[in-house]
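Model: You mentioned two targets. I'll fold them one after the other.
Researcher: Yes, keep them separate.
Model: Target one:
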Amino acid sequence: MSALTTQRHHDWQRRELKRSLRNVNLRKHAGALALVAPLAVFIFLVFVMPVASMISRSVQSPEVVDALPSTTDVLRNWKKGTPVPDEAYRALVLDMERNGGNNESGNAAARLNGQKEGFRSLFYRTATALPFGDNDGRLPAAEVKAKLIEVDKRWEDAGFWGAIARDSSRYTSQYLLATFDFRHDAEGKIVPVEHSAYQEVFKRTFVISGYVTLIALLLGYPLAYWIAGLPAGKANMVMILVLLPFWTSILVRISAWIVILQGSGLVNKGLMSLDLISSPLPLLFNRVGVLISMTHILLPFMILPLYSVMKSVPNSYVKAAVSLGSHPFGAFWKVYFPQTLPGVGAGGLLVFITALGYYITPALLGGAGDQMVSYYIAYFTNVALNWGMACALGAVLLVITLILFGVYRKIVGKELKVG
């Protein structure tokens, strides 16, 4: 009996011990979550929510539905090729009379004018002729139709009604299609636009970012290699000089490059004083000025990853290869350089992705043919007030960046497995 009691006591102790350990682990996890929670909330508020809002706005088109709710409701059941329902004319008049002096009709007209030219003037002429005295909808629909056509005969054109029907939903693929230079035709089919615009802009963005990344690598690799070979004290001093531009405003640095690269600037004056050129070189408001300034600004982002990787590579490896009969360059290329590839990849990815979103430098130092995607995002946001197009361009740029990052992770992962 005592042995059974002792066994039960041991079982009870084990259960209590497990419960105590579980409570301790729960408290530790709760404490860790409490420490991480402010950062998680901050990231959610300033990054996740804006990105989600941008992506959702790129497929939204509420202007026409908000301004013409009754009209779009009637046209949702209208089949193309059949006469426009008389009720659509009455619904349009009621919607425009309900809008009155607010700018909902103007927003809808601007949205529809992008699909069929003339909608803006058509809405304005119709709005000035209202009201028809049908605020309660008692006039026959055929009479309202006749009065509307009397105001402007373009209301007989089914193409204008088709444009309203295509925007009878709050969601649209028009903005995303436009970023790839496609659109919906009158029949709703996806067709390419007559003049390619955004494909060229994206191509230009990638070309400029690629050139900046390559130049930064060619300049940053030997500099990082030299710094990695210095004593610790001198290396720290040089790294402070590398990081010094971070403490200077980008606008100040761009302004400095304008002074340096202009026709009467330091570069042209120096070359002319050495009789290397007879007239000033065009270094501003073109691709050359953009590449020089962007490389100067982004060079530290290439040097820092390279330096951190190079510091972890022992010099004894190269010395051992040379002592075994290898040429110094062959030892560097076959022994040292492969070990620095993670730094090359990290620095190249960091510079390239950062360069993709540049706006100020091309806007101030480049010409019309040097503007990148960010310039057009800013234009649609601040000037054209076309938030849907701005968000679509931003969403496409974000997706491309994530794809590049995924490719980089996969390549680095394979290299680590092989290593």
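Model: Target two:
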Amino acid sequence: MADEGSGESTLTVLVALGINVGIALMKAVAGVISGSAAMLAEAGHSVADTITEALLLTALRRSERPADRRHPFGYGKERYFWSLLAAVSIFTSGAVFALVQGYDALVNGSADEGNPLVAYIVLALGFALESVSLSRAVVQIRKEAAEDDTSIVKYLRDIDDPTAKTVFFEDAAALIGLLLAFLGLFLHQLTGSVVYDGVASLLIAVLLAGCAYVLGRTNRGLLIGRQADAALVRAVRQRLFEAPEVEVVVDLLTMLTGTDRVLLCARLDFDDALGAADLERACVRIAAELTAEFPALDEIFLEPVPREDQDLRARVLARYGQEFVSD
């Protein structure tokens, strides 16, 4: 399942990369010919998207490396690091450039403009191509949301694969940016005022900054170490409760170590009648059953603890609240 998901993400990124390279060149030429600040801002937008796709491909390739001595939990979080850099790229290469173009148009711009026909053609082609890229990202997200039996909105909020989310957001922002550029160019042509062109460029800058912020916040949470999906945590806790040797689930810790990779640490109060050998066999069996039922569990640690440990109980209360603590 993880390999299939990685293949889906790679195809989504490759489609977006190929489209963005072509669009960036067309927008740059159209921007120079038309003299439109919004068009040049959109060229910068597409350059930022192209850099983003290259970084996402790096993320996909490096995150699939197997665990080794220096990184015993694998390299899954490389995907989050490179995706964070992609978010920074959207801001620095896209938002800042668009801001400069908009400012220059408002402060130093002239009402004179070049031939806008080429810009209109490029905007139409760009909209069609970006729609293809976005539809590819939507197909992947819908498929994965359906597999998780959740809504698209919730899936995008909780997703542990930032590549598909990044492509989705940047393509949606690209379509909105093209509409803003069209309005700026059209109103500039209609009224002769460069203000509309400059404002459109500034709005593109705000759009890209907002997109970069959302993606950056997502990857920050994944890098810090986010808990696994709540539904998975509840299901694992229930299975541990159902194990005949387990009397109380004292604590349950999970962390995403990569896409479809979850580290699980469970502190369990076992039946006091169990001997040392019985306890060892129980831990091995429970871990094997959890791995078989929940393939996302990459590493499982089961620790026998007494439920009366007050220090541990206080830490669990501070982390989860009363609803998790068993009496």
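Researcher: Noted. Anything on target two?
Model: Residues 3 and 64 are 9 Å apart (CA to CA).
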